[in-house]
Amino acid sequence: MPSGLGDADLDGCFRTLNQIGYEDPISIEWEDSGMDHLASVPLVLTYAREHVHNLPAAAFDVLLRVLDRRKGPPVESVIDSHNVTD
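Below the sequence we write its predicted structure tokens.
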């Protein structure tokens, strides 16, 4: 299930990391064999941008390049359709 939609208290984890001044990378992984991980990227990106402070835009560069290579709408249209902003 995409980040923020499950039972884990990710908001609490992010708040705690911010409070202690954590500035290193964060990797959030999920396992769901029935889910199209590429299709859920815009949801995860939106969640991360809304809940992680000082999110580096470069963190998603590789992921967006992967999306550009897949068949389907351009990355920009996928992101725009989910109201994702920088």
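The helical segments are 10-19, 37-51, 61-69, 75-81.
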